[in-house]
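## Example record

The block below lists the input lines for one assembly entry, exactly as stored, with component labels intact.
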Amino acid sequence: MPEAPRDVAHILIEDVHPSVDAGRWPAKRIAGRPCGVEAAILRDGHVNLRAVLLWRRADVEAWSEAPFACVEPGLDRWRGEFPLAAPGAHLFAIRAWTDLYGTWLDDLRRRVESGLQVRSEALEGAALLDRVAAGASGGDAGALKAASARLKGAADRPADALAAAADPALRKVVDRLQPRDDEVTTAPLRVYADRARALVGAWYELFPRSQGAVPGRASTLREAERRFPDLKKMGFDVLYLPPIHPIGTTHRKGKNNSLTAKPGEPGSPWAIGSPAGGHDAVAPELGTLRDFDHFVAEAARHGMEIALDFALQCSPDHPWVKTHPEWFYRRPDGSIKYAENPPKKYEDIYPLNFDSEDRAGLFKEIRRVLQVWIDHGVKIFRVDNPHTKPPGFWEWLIADIQAKHPDVLFLAEAFTRPPMMKALGKLGYTQSYTYFAWRTGKAELTAYLEELSRPPASEYFRPNFFINTPDILPKILVDGGRPAFRQRLVLAATLSPSYGIYSGYELNENAAIPHQAFPDDVEYADSEKYEIRVRDWDAPGNIKDLVARLNAIRRENPALQELSNLRFLTTSDDQLLAYVKRSGGNTLLVVVNLDVHRVREGMVDVPGAAIGLDEGAPYVVRDLLTDARYPWGGRNYVRLDPAVEPAHVFRVERPS
Amino acid sequence: MPEAPRDVAHILIEDVHPSVDAGRWPAKRIAGRPCGVEAAILRDGHVNLRAVLLWRRADVEAWSEAPFACVEPGLDRWRGEFPLAAPGAHLFAIRAWTDLYGTWLDDLRRRVESGLQVRSEALEGAALLDRVAAGASGGDAGALKAASARLKGAADRPADALAAAADPALRKVVDRLQPRDDEVTTAPLRVYADRARALVGAWYELFPRSQGAVPGRASTLREAERRFPDLKKMGFDVLYLPPIHPIGTTHRKGKNNSLTAKPGEPGSPWAIGSPAGGHDAVAPELGTLRDFDHFVAEAARHGMEIALDFALQCSPDHPWVKTHPEWFYRRPDGSIKYAENPPKKYEDIYPLNFDSEDRAGLFKEIRRVLQVWIDHGVKIFRVDNPHTKPPGFWEWLIADIQAKHPDVLFLAEAFTRPPMMKALGKLGYTQSYTYFAWRTGKAELTAYLEELSRPPASEYFRPNFFINTPDILPKILVDGGRPAFRQRLVLAATLSPSYGIYSGYELNENAAIPHQAFPDDVEYADSEKYEIRVRDWDAPGNIKDLVARLNAIRRENPALQELSNLRFLTTSDDQLLAYVKRSGGNTLLVVVNLDVHRVREGMVDVPGAAIGLDEGAPYVVRDLLTDARYPWGGRNYVRLDPAVEPAHVFRVERPS
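Predicted structure tokens for the full assembly:
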């Protein structure tokens, strides 16, 4: 027969939150707000427990302690929180132990209150105090021994014994010094605290070269700054730039992705690298690094920070091709392979070989490039196609950057199968592009948002609801025109704390051609990826006022700055989508007509609990888009004409 | 700058099932059925993966391999299964790697099919084969080298090159021998395979001493055997006996839990131990160990196995009190403490001290006691109050027993807060008592069953729906009488694969007194725990026919032998509970009137998917209780009079 175990666990700590895959990955939180922690702590028998929340920054060795208290005894539920004072990686653990003295004291109290004699119990308590005293020194030891003596002396006088034992000063000493019997500590769990922009932001994407007024000539970064007042008026927080690096000429793509560029065609910014430089350089037609610094500073003055594209691929003219041919895939004859998906060839692009023999050199150089841009004020990187690079590479790179620069954010531009989308969030990506652009129906929007806004996904995957991108022109925008642009804008801006548009959206641009890769889909005609566009940014029919209004509403209403507070409501029409977001006293109630062609009307059910009012209590909603006010209750009539207003964005106001 | 990592992971294995707390605890399965395993396997890039399921019995060192294949490419979902040939602890892991040759071959095929030249690719393939050959020997090495040469030779003839590369015999050799690039293996996860009785069984609890015909005289085990034909007729699988050990006389409890027993009163079987023996002995009034052996054998002959109570507590007369006073809690004066919950005293019971200095000796003795009963044919232990003993003790004890006797089952009799109930399942308990006895409303029954029948709970917590116990007389039985007994019987027998009744249930016994511990509750009057009862087992109004019918239905319908197949249906009445259980071609559809006083009628919605038929397709249901047949469809009228039939237990039959 095997030996009986020397120690057997009395205490179990179960169901700890937050936890992503039992601590394998960090949960995401925002710095400046405490991190709430919950767990079930259980033990056999009727015994008092104590627990403490241990926490530390990953870069600090010493653990700190925070209170951890039972908040729901019927469920053995304990809770505490620790500060996330600044961005960075944090660890926490829960430690619990048996409160011997407290258990004994509660027992003593029940006996005394029941009129029982307590001589035996008092002697037990004195022995407990002696045991604590044996591990104490100085004044503590003296106080404990004295208390023990008092307790023994009062052993035959129950009320006196209880008074001596329950003395608050004594309890403090005991709590501090008594041996932590049955102590257990969970394995450490991980939390990453980001700055607030990781969660909330309105993004705008533009090609700097297309901000001029002269057809066919690239505008410089300096010239592109002329858009800043307009963007500020629209209320954007982040200005995202496609690659600004020198563009290769070998196999340069022409207009509409044609295989050969005509003279003067500018090429795709994603074909990075030319004799003028690689990933750490600014394309000469855009200006210099000093111009970039100016651009960053001016953007900041207009309330925006810059997000830079980070696309790990090279044109055949990239300096690395000459200096480090070993970083690329090579054929048996020694030539470098371009990107291919047979029979398709992408001869303007060389992929990097992350299994290169000189992998260490390649990684070091990539790390250096990021540092260059960080040193020039870039704190957000929108990473191109991260799902085509090794997961382990991102885990290393992001952790390494954030160890030094915990306020740097990474947005994953992956449109691939769900497990990889999610894995990128676990690996360290701050935010992720999503399937939102293709989710237009009520059931699919509801299901997708419920998945994203709740654990487990919400613990590590932060959506950024880009409505369009240079690569994505959703069909609903082509079919639905301006009403669709307005409807999708309301959805993105009110469903997700982070959302974005690619420039031209505000002008309802939707000229489409059949998609070259996906026959059932469409893409932008005359894509800005391959040519310089000139636009009338004040063209008739533009929806800039709605953009500005929505971004202002987002700033003024904390409820729109969270995702986990989303709750869908029942409506009587399958094209009316209604949802509530509530944060403290701020409650928004949004109703959107998903039908871009027809008027829809129906009833919206609003349970009192969803808006923090008594069931059936009347209230007033104010439409923040139109300023109209309506008296509402539990069941409410709504009529939305897509030609007039795509949605109501109500704020709930109590009747005055 | 920290060093770049030498290796970076390409492959992630995510979302592995089954898994309880990331492998901390075993998932529960049934021996004789393979264990299905699922995971998402992902990798960067467009690359072929291979994977294998590794598994072994915990007591066998060598790992076996089973196929693991991609079953849903759009979700990166892989699946496999491994055999659970016999009860016992098992481990599994998933190993995945990059299929270099397969990836290269698919690329080659696309090129050849697109009419491209493949000279360079053929040379690459030959190099791959050479690399495999370098690690091979004998005939394999020769075959690989020859294939490499053929491929080189055909490099300028695409079709020939493809034919040479795709040769099935070659692929088999390559699959077997090629280096497993990027190989990753998950941490091992745990599965415990139980024998079938762990999942499915109808239990009957009786006090052997109360099976006689002479009031006041204990029936012996031999005499109690007279009940076996009746129990067999009712169709029970497990006969559970309260403790059969000698009962102490010191502070023996009398009728209705009175503090002093009158002469001749038999005492509570849970006050274990007297000069006649302790936990390893049979009470003299019941017979001898040989009688017990006879009882076990006779029960088996009637299709039942014995479950024995295992209550780790002692009467003051237990032999351990003399031989091992150090196993008990002692007062400062050296006397042994009885159980107490001040001001209440339980002087007839001494609790064991699991933190005793001689813990090893105590554990060894407990282990020995269990072995005694296992050696006498007991393979099921119903453990009394496990939540009052250390969790780590159970984890050790159950694992130690099951390492030698993997077919031994443990039922946890804990009625305490939810986290401990669940933890006992994780710690190793095969089955658990539940809150079912107190769940009588539609919403609470639905919520509780949905929790129990789905992961995570269903992976480690197996309910046994005892409807009543000597300690639990549910109010609905007191208020509702016979109709309530019939309704609760249908619910327990059809909702849960394991359920049980305590004898007297079939006679609708519900004489109640106010509960001594819980003022709002009731308990059995003249509880059998403290006195010997004599009953007329054929008393008028008994529901033995319904018991027999339901147990026969359970045996004949595999759908009732599972829990995870439970699906609730929508009904138009808040007292009509409807659910489907489906297993292969066997579909049961149960409708229960939860109102024990009134007729209820309403509509039951049956989605086609719930019963495996096309939406709207007609079908016939046959009531297995009455043999009546009805044509049914998507929406169906039901009327149930509790005075006539509490429920329909339909089997779905296709129209002939």
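The mean pLDDT of chain B is 96. The first strand of chain B starts at residue 11 and ends at 17.
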